[in-house]
Amino acid sequence: MSITVNTSVEASKAEREKFVLAFNDTMVKIWKERITLLDVIDTGTLLNSVVGVRCNADGQFLQIELSQAFRTYGLWQDRGVGKEVYRGNPGDIERDKVRVRKRWFSIKYYASFYNLREFLADNVGKQFLGMTSDVFETDKFIKQAWP
Predict the structure, then answer these.
(1) Residue 84: which residues within 8 A CB-CB, separation 6 or more?
(2) What are residue 69's DSSP bridge partners?
(3) pLDDT at 1
(4) pLDDT at 112 over 80
(5) Which of the residues 2, 5, 47, 127 could staple to 12 if both were Cys, CB 3.0 to 4.6 A apart?
(6) b/e for 90-122, b at 16 or more Cβ within 10 A?
(7) CA–CA dist 64, 57 (Å, integer)
(8) Hey, is 33 helix, strand or coil?
(9) Count of helix runs (H) and strand runs (E) in the chain
(10) pTM of the predicted model, to two decimals?
């Protein structure tokens, strides 16, 4: 009895590696485009702070750690909150809210995260579809079951 994994294992691994390595660079490009498009620029500090920090993966690109970084206040820009409301405010700022939500981060990040997750599930699934076993080949099965 033997189990065979076809040659798509290396092709699947190479495809995963290419996709994962491109993820951080792609996210940085998308975020910088969104920051510029939505005019989330005052001094340019947020725009220049967006970087892909790290990509660690095991040899098969099945366990992955990706890291990106940017100035924390970028999250407040994405949510449309910030310094116009003082700490401890009960919710009534006694004037119209001036800040508007500029969603440069969240929408693209979550969409890209789910795309990466779906890609990995599909890729790993296809890799294991190539596995076969000869245990049920009629002649071998009968000879092993009834010698």
Answers:
(1) 93, 97, 98, 99
(2) 51
(3) 47
(4) yes
(5) 127
(6) eeeeeeeeeeeebbbbeebbeeeeeebeeebee
(7) 4
(8) helix
(9) 5, 4
(10) 0.70
